[in-house]
Design a protein that fits this description.
alpha+beta, Uridine Diphospho-n-acetylenolpyruvylglucosamine Reductase, domain 2, 8-stranded antiparallel β-sheet, 5-stranded antiparallel β-sheet, 14 helices, 26% helix, globular
Length: 493
């Protein structure tokens, strides 16, 4: 039940059209904006449009997918080039202001007043290297756009569950693909180069051979170390998938979930899979038997021949009567139908943990709190299998933590203001019910605004990785300019 704000653009296209027009907003007599225009360095071109509260376009520039929190920055910088990002960071440094960055606004971080928001949605350059099976993208590029461009060459990236998710922000948090993640690992594992503006306003190139500590930390450490303005990463030859979802009645969960867990334990790495209780809206684009009801959605993606995929998935189809079956050979560009995420914008309230195992007792606890007779207010309660390449260290190490977990456990509620506290409390209860099987960790891209305490962020990393992250933070952002996120404070406090 998406809660659309009538004052915000409601589709990704509307938001991007407005932000691409940022130069027009800046040139049309925006009230007070000139006072916020630091002089650009010689030869860098015109400054970025800067918007203050009350200026035309200010509220639209803060439009986001997850509207559960509010941002009220002192100014929004509509960045079109890396030197615009540098302008913003240098201004913030001179005035001792924190800096946040937003492209798509998918993950709720922390609400804030004041500071500088750098909106990078217009930095949407894409270059595909067909010879090297790689891409270069700006921070405004979304997975849907990249997938379409790459597919022309039979290539695909480690996309998230939704095409409207930003490629760069997702990858800096690790990047857990529901399509080919177990086969290829995290998206961060395949980054080869970053251009990043650090707290001193310098544009640095970070690679395995240059700025090695920064390169290591940024890949997994989210936005704590600067603002990425360009990213190079590998693509894979995946023209098609055998993928989709099997929907079962929630009442069949006692048969379906154990069968899925046992099946997943034997699945090859070419299969990436999850199972979730999902509350289907009445108008959901699924067959009539599944609309408007709570279902168990078993998501499957197989990178391989469709006939072999059909054979592999057959035991799942036999687990219980199937209400809807979308698992079929599809072009990679249709990968979003695996999860069928809502279009947004929505007020989403999430909680998460990582599981070391999923025994029968954990499944029973999940059914009791999220199943047919639970009265759960949550829109989704998901268990996602990890392992495979996700458990292995990449050739060039990075800061992605907790690779030894077996599953992510994630819940999300979509609630109007009067139901927010009930949803939050229920989400916390669900996470608590998994405590006996949790490894105490979390996946940083799934952390919510309610999990932004330093100890929550620390849980996303092993102690050794977190200690090194804090040390790198001290070196490149000792004053903690980039703290308006799931923050890793400098080691020196």
């Amino acid at each position: 039940m998406a809660m659309n704000d009538p004052h915000l653009p409601t589709t990704p296209l509307e938001r991007r059209t407005l932000l691409r027009a940022g130069g027009l907003l800046g040139a049309a007599g925006v009230t007070g904006a000139a006072a916020f225009h630091p002089a650009p360095a010689h030869g860098e071109g015109p400054p970025a449009p800067w918007l203050r509260p009350g200026d035309p376009g200010y509220e639209e520039s803060l439009a986001r997918f997850n509207i559960s929190i509010d941002h009220h920055p002192e100014a929004v910088v509509l960045a079109h080039h890396s030197h615009h990002v540098q302008e913003a960071v240098r201004y913030a440094g001179r005035h001792d202001l924190p800096v946040a960055v937003m492209a798509t606004g998918h993950q709720a971080s922390v609400p804030f007043d004041g500071g500088i928001m750098v909106n990078t949605a217009a930095m949407d350059r894409i270059r595909i290297d067909t010879h090297g099976s790689a891409a270069t993208v700006g921070p405004g590029v979304r997975w849907g756009e990249l997938a379409e461009r790459a597919a022309h060459h039979g290539l695909a990236g480690l996309a998230g569950s939704s095409g409207s998710v930003g490629v760069v922000g997702y990858t800096l948090g690790g990047g857990l693909s529901p399509a080919i993640g177990r086969l290829h690992g995290y998206a961060a594992d395949h980054v080869s180069r970053l251009e990043i503006v650090t707290a001193d306003g310098e544009l640095r190139e970070a690679t395995p051979e240059c700025e090695e500590d920064l390169f290591w930390a940024a890949r997994g450490g989210k936005g704590n170390f600067g603002i990425v303005t360009s990213m190079d990463f590998g693509l894979f030859h995946v023209p098609t998938l055998y993928a989709g979802a099997l929907l079962f009645a929630a009442e069949a969960a006692e048969d379906v979930l154990p069968a899925w867990r046992d099946w997943a334990a034997q699945a090859p790495e070419e299969i990436t899979t999850s199972a979730a209780f999902v509350q289907m809206p009445p108008d959901a684009p699924v067959p009539e038997p599944a609309r408007g009801r709570l279902v168990v959605s078993v998501r499957v993606s197989y990178d391989g021949d469709a006939s072999e995929g059909e054979r592999l998935v057959a035991p799942l189809r036999a687990a219980a009567p199937v209400l809807a079956d979308s698992v079929a050979e599809i072009p990679f560009t249709d990968w979003e139908q695996i999860h069928s995420d809502p279009a947004g914008p929505i007020p989403a309230y999430e909680r998460t943990t990582l599981l070391a195992e999923l025994p029968d007792e954990a499944i029973s606890a999940m059914i009791a709190l999220a199943g047919a007779d639970s009265g759960s207010p949550m829109s989704l309660v998901e268990v996602r299998q990890l392992g495979g390449a996700l458990a292995r260290e990449p050739e060039v190490s990075n800061a992605v933590g907790r690779r030894g977990a077996a599953f992510t456990f994630f819940t999300i509620g979509v609630a109007p203001p009067e139901e927010v506290e009930d949803v939050r409390a229920y989400g916390e209860r669900l996470i608590g019910s998994m405590e006996a099987w949790s490894n105490g960790g979390a996946y940083v891209n799934f952390l919510s605004s309610d999990e932004s305490d330093p100890e929550d962020v620390r849980s996303a990393y092993t102690p050794k990785i977190y200690e090194r992250l804090a040390e790198v933070k001290s070196e490149v952002d000792g004053e903690n300019m980039f703290r308006l996120t799931h923050n890793i404070p400098p080691a020196d406090g």
